[in-house]
Protein backbone atom coordinates (compact mmCIF):
# COMPACT_ATOMS: atom_id res chain seq x y z
CA UNK A 1 0.00 0.00 0.00
CA UNK A 2 2.83 2.38 1.05
CA UNK A 3 4.63 1.58 -2.19
CA UNK A 4 1.53 2.35 -4.22
CA UNK A 5 1.12 5.73 -2.54
CA UNK A 6 4.76 6.56 -3.19
CA UNK A 7 4.28 5.27 -6.74
CA UNK A 8 1.27 7.54 -7.34
CA UNK A 9 3.04 10.46 -5.70
CA UNK A 10 6.00 9.81 -7.95
CA UNK A 11 3.76 9.87 -11.01
CA UNK A 12 2.05 13.06 -9.80
CA UNK A 13 5.44 14.69 -9.20
CA UNK A 14 6.51 13.63 -12.69
CA UNK A 15 3.30 15.07 -14.18
CA UNK A 16 3.72 18.32 -12.21
CA UNK A 17 7.32 18.61 -13.34
CA UNK A 18 6.32 17.85 -16.89
CA UNK A 19 3.66 20.56 -16.73
CA UNK A 20 6.18 23.03 -15.30
CA UNK A 21 8.64 22.19 -18.06
CA UNK A 22 5.87 22.58 -20.66
CA UNK A 23 4.85 25.94 -19.17
CA UNK A 24 8.47 27.09 -19.22
CA UNK A 25 8.78 26.03 -22.84
CA UNK A 26 5.59 27.93 -23.77
CA UNK A 27 6.86 30.98 -21.88
CA UNK A 28 10.24 30.80 -23.60
CA UNK A 29 8.51 30.51 -26.95
CA UNK A 30 6.35 33.56 -26.13
CA UNK A 31 9.42 35.52 -25.06
CA UNK A 32 11.21 34.56 -28.25
CA UNK A 33 8.17 35.65 -30.32
CA UNK A 34 7.86 38.92 -28.34
CA UNK A 35 11.56 39.67 -28.83
CA UNK A 36 11.21 38.99 -32.54
CA UNK A 37 8.15 41.28 -32.75
CA UNK A 38 9.95 43.99 -30.78
CA UNK A 39 12.96 43.87 -33.05
CA UNK A 40 10.77 44.08 -36.12
CA UNK A 41 9.02 47.15 -34.66
CA UNK A 42 12.41 48.75 -34.00
CA UNK A 43 13.60 47.88 -37.50
CA UNK A 44 10.41 49.35 -38.86
CA UNK A 45 11.00 52.61 -36.99
CA UNK A 46 14.62 52.69 -38.20
CA UNK A 47 13.40 52.11 -41.73
CA UNK A 48 10.92 54.98 -41.41
CA UNK A 49 13.64 57.35 -40.27
CA UNK A 50 16.07 56.15 -42.92
CA UNK A 51 13.48 56.70 -45.63
CA UNK A 52 12.62 60.14 -44.33
CA UNK A 53 16.28 61.08 -44.03
CA UNK A 54 16.86 59.95 -47.59
CA UNK A 55 13.93 62.11 -48.63
CA UNK A 56 11.64 59.31 -49.73
CA UNK A 57 9.11 60.65 -52.16
CA UNK A 58 5.61 59.77 -51.13
CA UNK A 59 2.89 59.56 -53.72
CA UNK A 60 -0.47 61.29 -53.46
CA UNK A 61 -2.98 58.78 -52.16
CA UNK A 62 -6.56 58.38 -53.19
CA UNK A 63 -7.77 58.07 -49.63
CA UNK A 64 -11.30 56.94 -50.39
CA UNK A 65 -10.00 54.19 -52.67
CA UNK A 66 -7.73 52.92 -49.89
CA UNK A 67 -10.72 52.89 -47.52
CA UNK A 68 -12.72 50.78 -49.99
CA UNK A 69 -9.76 48.41 -50.39
CA UNK A 70 -9.35 48.01 -46.63
CA UNK A 71 -13.07 47.24 -46.30
CA UNK A 72 -12.79 44.61 -49.01
CA UNK A 73 -9.58 43.12 -47.60
CA UNK A 74 -11.11 42.71 -44.16
CA UNK A 75 -14.43 41.34 -45.43
CA UNK A 76 -13.59 37.75 -44.47
CA UNK A 77 -13.40 38.93 -40.84
CA UNK A 78 -16.20 41.50 -40.54
CA UNK A 79 -18.67 39.76 -42.84
CA UNK A 80 -18.03 36.10 -43.56
CA UNK A 81 -16.51 34.97 -40.26
CA UNK A 82 -18.91 37.14 -38.27
CA UNK A 83 -21.94 35.70 -40.11
CA UNK A 84 -20.67 32.18 -39.45
CA UNK A 85 -20.80 33.08 -35.74
CA UNK A 86 -24.31 34.56 -36.08
CA UNK A 87 -22.97 38.09 -35.76
CA UNK A 88 -23.98 40.75 -38.29
CA UNK A 89 -21.51 43.56 -38.74
CA UNK A 90 -22.12 46.32 -41.25
CA UNK A 91 -19.77 49.03 -42.40
CA UNK A 92 -21.25 52.38 -43.28
CA UNK A 93 -19.12 54.95 -45.10
CA UNK A 94 -19.41 58.65 -45.75
CA UNK A 95 -16.42 59.45 -47.91
CA UNK A 96 -16.25 63.06 -48.98
CA UNK A 97 -14.13 64.46 -51.76
CA UNK A 98 -10.83 65.20 -50.07
CA UNK A 99 -7.42 66.23 -51.39
CA UNK A 100 -4.98 63.33 -51.79
CA UNK A 101 -2.55 63.29 -48.87
CA UNK A 102 0.99 62.17 -49.71
CA UNK A 103 2.15 59.00 -48.06
CA UNK A 104 2.63 55.30 -48.39
CA UNK A 105 -0.55 53.65 -49.60
CA UNK A 106 0.08 50.18 -48.19
CA UNK A 107 0.89 51.63 -44.78
CA UNK A 108 -2.38 53.52 -44.76
CA UNK A 109 -4.15 50.27 -45.66
CA UNK A 110 -2.42 48.65 -42.68
CA UNK A 111 -3.69 51.42 -40.40
CA UNK A 112 -7.25 51.05 -41.67
CA UNK A 113 -7.15 47.26 -41.54
CA UNK A 114 -6.02 47.37 -37.91
CA UNK A 115 -8.75 49.84 -36.98
CA UNK A 116 -11.45 47.79 -38.73
CA UNK A 117 -10.31 44.51 -37.14
CA UNK A 118 -10.25 46.13 -33.70
CA UNK A 119 -13.77 47.42 -34.31
CA UNK A 120 -14.91 43.90 -35.25
CA UNK A 121 -13.35 42.47 -32.08
CA UNK A 122 -15.13 45.16 -30.07
CA UNK A 123 -18.55 44.05 -31.36
CA UNK A 124 -19.01 40.41 -30.39
CA UNK A 125 -22.80 40.64 -30.74
CA UNK A 126 -23.31 42.53 -34.03
CA UNK A 127 -23.05 46.21 -34.78
CA UNK A 128 -22.01 48.97 -37.13
CA UNK A 129 -18.61 50.33 -38.08
CA UNK A 130 -18.60 53.86 -39.49
CA UNK A 131 -15.83 55.23 -41.67
CA UNK A 132 -15.82 58.89 -42.62
CA UNK A 133 -13.42 61.05 -44.55
CA UNK A 134 -13.68 64.82 -44.57
CA UNK A 135 -11.70 67.99 -44.75
CA UNK A 136 -11.22 69.97 -41.58
CA UNK A 137 -9.51 73.24 -42.45
CA UNK A 138 -6.43 72.11 -44.34
CA UNK A 139 -6.31 68.73 -42.73
CA UNK A 140 -7.74 65.51 -44.13
CA UNK A 141 -9.60 63.67 -41.41
CA UNK A 142 -10.28 59.98 -41.49
CA UNK A 143 -12.58 58.66 -38.82
CA UNK A 144 -13.16 55.03 -37.93
CA UNK A 145 -15.64 54.36 -35.17
CA UNK A 146 -17.65 51.47 -33.85
CA UNK A 147 -20.59 50.92 -31.56
CA UNK A 148 -18.71 48.31 -29.60
CA UNK A 149 -17.71 47.63 -26.04
CA UNK A 150 -15.58 50.77 -25.77
CA UNK A 151 -12.51 51.15 -23.59
CA UNK A 152 -12.01 51.39 -19.87
CA UNK A 153 -9.79 54.25 -18.66
CA UNK A 154 -6.84 51.89 -18.28
CA UNK A 155 -7.22 50.49 -21.80
CA UNK A 156 -7.60 54.02 -23.17
CA UNK A 157 -4.35 55.07 -21.58
CA UNK A 158 -2.43 52.00 -22.67
CA UNK A 159 -3.95 51.12 -26.05
CA UNK A 160 -0.98 52.43 -28.08
CA UNK A 161 1.60 50.61 -25.97
CA UNK A 162 3.32 47.91 -28.01
CA UNK A 163 2.23 44.44 -26.81
CA UNK A 164 -0.66 45.81 -24.76
CA UNK A 165 -3.70 43.67 -25.46
CA UNK A 166 -6.82 42.63 -23.61
CA UNK A 167 -7.33 39.73 -26.03
CA UNK A 168 -4.86 37.32 -24.41
CA UNK A 169 -3.37 34.94 -26.96
CA UNK A 170 -5.78 36.19 -29.66
CA UNK A 171 -3.99 39.54 -29.86
CA UNK A 172 -0.38 40.61 -30.25
CA UNK A 173 -1.08 44.11 -28.96
CA UNK A 174 0.86 45.54 -31.88
CA UNK A 175 -2.01 46.63 -34.13
CA UNK A 176 -2.67 50.04 -32.64
CA UNK A 177 0.94 50.74 -31.75
CA UNK A 178 1.77 50.91 -35.46
CA UNK A 179 -0.95 53.49 -36.12
CA UNK A 180 0.76 56.58 -34.65
CA UNK A 181 4.12 55.42 -36.03
CA UNK A 182 2.72 55.24 -39.54
CA UNK A 183 0.63 58.39 -39.23
CA UNK A 184 3.46 60.48 -37.82
CA UNK A 185 6.31 59.22 -39.93
CA UNK A 186 4.39 58.54 -43.10
CA UNK A 187 1.89 61.35 -43.21
CA UNK A 188 3.57 63.99 -41.11
CA UNK A 189 1.38 66.95 -40.63
CA UNK A 190 -1.02 66.30 -43.45
CA UNK A 191 -3.49 63.97 -42.01
CA UNK A 192 -5.33 63.40 -38.82
CA UNK A 193 -6.93 60.12 -37.94
CA UNK A 194 -9.71 60.08 -35.45
CA UNK A 195 -12.62 57.97 -34.35
CA UNK A 196 -13.13 55.44 -31.61
CA UNK A 197 -9.49 54.80 -31.17
CA UNK A 198 -7.22 57.69 -31.66
CA UNK A 199 -9.92 60.31 -31.28
CA UNK A 200 -8.61 63.78 -30.53
CA UNK A 201 -5.19 62.63 -31.53
CA UNK A 202 -3.24 65.60 -32.57
CA UNK A 203 -0.89 64.57 -35.31
CA UNK A 204 -0.71 68.06 -36.64
CA UNK A 205 2.77 69.08 -35.77
CA UNK A 206 4.08 72.35 -36.95
CA UNK A 207 7.61 71.00 -37.44
CA UNK A 208 8.76 68.11 -39.64
CA UNK A 209 8.83 64.83 -37.77
CA UNK A 210 12.05 64.20 -35.87
CA UNK A 211 12.76 61.72 -33.11
CA UNK A 212 12.13 64.33 -30.43
CA UNK A 213 8.88 65.75 -31.76
CA UNK A 214 7.81 62.23 -32.67
CA UNK A 215 8.10 61.34 -28.98
CA UNK A 216 6.30 64.54 -28.09
CA UNK A 217 3.52 63.70 -30.51
CA UNK A 218 3.29 60.13 -29.27
CA UNK A 219 2.90 61.48 -25.77
CA UNK A 220 -0.07 63.49 -27.01
CA UNK A 221 -1.76 60.45 -28.45
CA UNK A 222 -4.75 59.53 -26.39
CA UNK A 223 -7.82 57.45 -26.98
CA UNK A 224 -11.34 58.74 -26.58
N1 LIG B 1 -12.21 49.72 -31.31
C1 LIG B 1 -11.86 49.33 -30.09
N2 LIG B 1 -12.80 49.20 -29.11
C2 LIG B 1 -12.47 48.80 -27.88
N3 LIG B 1 -11.21 48.49 -27.50
C3 LIG B 1 -10.23 48.59 -28.42
C4 LIG B 1 -10.50 49.02 -29.75
N4 LIG B 1 -9.34 49.05 -30.42
C5 LIG B 1 -8.40 48.65 -29.57
N5 LIG B 1 -8.92 48.36 -28.37
C6 LIG B 1 -8.18 47.92 -27.17
O1 LIG B 1 -6.81 48.24 -27.33
C7 LIG B 1 -6.01 47.05 -27.19
C8 LIG B 1 -4.80 47.17 -28.08
O2 LIG B 1 -5.21 47.12 -29.44
P1 LIG B 1 -4.21 46.54 -30.53
O3 LIG B 1 -4.85 46.63 -31.85
O4 LIG B 1 -2.88 47.20 -30.36
O5 LIG B 1 -3.99 45.04 -30.07
P2 LIG B 1 -4.98 43.80 -30.21
O6 LIG B 1 -6.14 44.15 -31.10
O7 LIG B 1 -5.29 43.34 -28.84
O8 LIG B 1 -4.07 42.72 -30.92
P3 LIG B 1 -3.88 42.57 -32.52
O9 LIG B 1 -3.98 43.93 -33.11
O10 LIG B 1 -2.56 41.94 -32.66
O11 LIG B 1 -4.99 41.65 -32.96
C9 LIG B 1 -6.96 45.91 -27.53
O12 LIG B 1 -6.56 44.69 -26.94
C10 LIG B 1 -8.29 46.41 -26.98
O13 LIG B 1 -8.37 46.20 -25.59
MG1 LIG C 1 -5.77 45.04 -33.00
Mean pLDDT: 73
The level 1 CATH classification of the largest domain is: Alpha Beta
Shape, principal axes of CA atoms: elongated
How many helices? The count is 7
Q: How many E strands?
A: 6
Helix/strand/pairing category = alpha/beta
Q: Provide the domain count.
A: 2
| Order of H and E elements | HEHHEEHEEHHEH
Radius of gyration: 22 Å
Strand order in space, largest sheet: 2-4-5-6
Helix content: 40-55%
What distance lies between the first and last C-alpha atoms, to the nearest angstrom?
65 Å
Low-confidence stretches: 194-215, 220-224
Bound chemical compounds = adenosine-5'-triphosphate, magnesium ion
Could you say what the CATH architecture of the largest domain is? 2-Layer Sandwich
CATH topology of the largest domain: Heat Shock Protein 90
User: How can the largest sheet be summarized?
Assistant: 4 strands, mixed
For CATH, the homologous superfamily of the largest domain is named as Histidine kinase-like ATPase, C-terminal domain
Characterization of the model:
This protein folds into two domains: 1-56; 58-220, Histidine kinase-like ATPase, C-terminal domain (Heat Shock Protein 90, 2-Layer Sandwich), CATH 3.30.565. A four-stranded mixed β-sheet has the order 2-4-5-6. The chain has a two-stranded antiparallel ribbon with strand order 1-3. The protein has helices spanning 2-53, 63-73, 75-84, 105-121, 153-158, 178-187, 211-220; strands spanning 59-60, 89-95, 102-103, 127-136, 139-146, 191-195. The N and C termini lie far apart (65 Å). The longest helix is centred in the first third of the chain and has 52 residues, at 2-53. With 224 residues, it is of the alpha/beta class. Helix 1 (2-53) runs parallel beside helix 6 and helix 4 (105-121) packs antiparallel against helix 6 (178-187). It is built from seven helices and six strands. Bound molecules: adenosine-5'-triphosphate (ATP) and magnesium ion.
